[in-house]
Design a protein that fits this description.
Elements (H helix, E strand, L loop, with lengths): L2 H24 L5 H26 L3 H27 L5 H18 L7 H23 L6 H27 L12 H37 L10 H12 L5 E8 L2 H8 L1 H18 L5 E4 L4 E6 L4 H16 L14 E8 L5 H17 L5 E4 L4 E5 L3
Parallel strand pairs: 4-5
Antiparallel strand pairs: 1-3, 1-4, 2-3, 5-6
Length: 390
Amino acid sequence: MSGAAFLLAVNFFIAQCFCLSFLAVSVRSRNRIAARWLAAAFSVASLSAICELLVAILPFTRVWAILAFASLLAGLLLLRVGIGRLYGTSTNLAVLALLFVAFVALDCAIYDLPRGAFPHAILYQLPFAVAVAWSMDAVRRAEKCHGVDRALVVMLALTSLHFIAKAFLAVLAGAGGTASGYIASRFALFSQSTTAVMVVALGLALLWVLVLDVLAQERRNAEIDPLSGLLNRRGFDSRADMLLAQPGSHSLVLCDLDNFKSVNDRYGHQAGDQVIRAFSTRLREAAPEGALAARIGGEEFALILPQTEQAAAALFAQALRASHALTSICGLPVEARVSASFGVAAISRGEPLHFAMARCDEALYAAKNAGRNCVREAGGPAVVEILRQA
């Protein structure tokens, strides 16, 4: 087996390993469809290596040579679909199919041109460069552009340029007089060596994007309460400091559903879950943009209102209290209502969150002791009533 034939086999094996890796990542990734397209892209493109080997050992050389070109091109176009799904940039499948047919027709047309000449070399490599450049453009135009995304753009640009460089290399090194002579040429050894490097680099870059997305999603899931869809205590604490670092006045609202245990005891835990969901939905819909809402306990909720004075936060709490008290909840009798009590506190500049939480908690307990279904505001050392149910 020649060195080029060995590298063709290696490239096939590497591409199939990446195919399996993308399929494995797709199990946990929210971008599972994109990951499966990428798996298909690497798998289809790897068939080019098999066809290149068959060119040298089987009859019908023209057929295998064109299939080698077509499979690599198809894999690179499928790569555009996968990257488009990953970055939210649509792929026009009609254009993709048209490009495939046009470029395969071009390969058929140039098949009999001298392989050592530049016209054949550039026209053969150009479709691959165009397909990869199309994928690069999909990443470049995407809304998100973090460090890993910029690295992928660079990797795709290098891959596209790699195909153009191969056209010049084919002329300088000699690509073999015929398709069957390619595998024994010096160019084949250079070409498959650089291809192996590009396959590994591009595959790792794409896996990096997918794995980082999986890790970010897992981190988000760890900070979300599954029942309410709001942040949990961990997510609330981790994001509160960043929010409170913004200039201006901020306020904290603590909410506690009244007599929640009796709801579970009387109507069952499923009804209790519906109460949590109903209040969470109302809280999420009422909270202004930029607010931080969380379920921090069984029936206790917290909300940070940025750029909001304490008096305005208290009015917000009163409106939320009144609207929730009128809400009919699935799973409870039509006449049944579940009220909530609220504590409100301004967060002083530089004040640790747990200090404000303690003061706000005192106000919440005052609301509970005052008969529930009301709002209390935390002052300095005292707890001041501002609004209560008429």
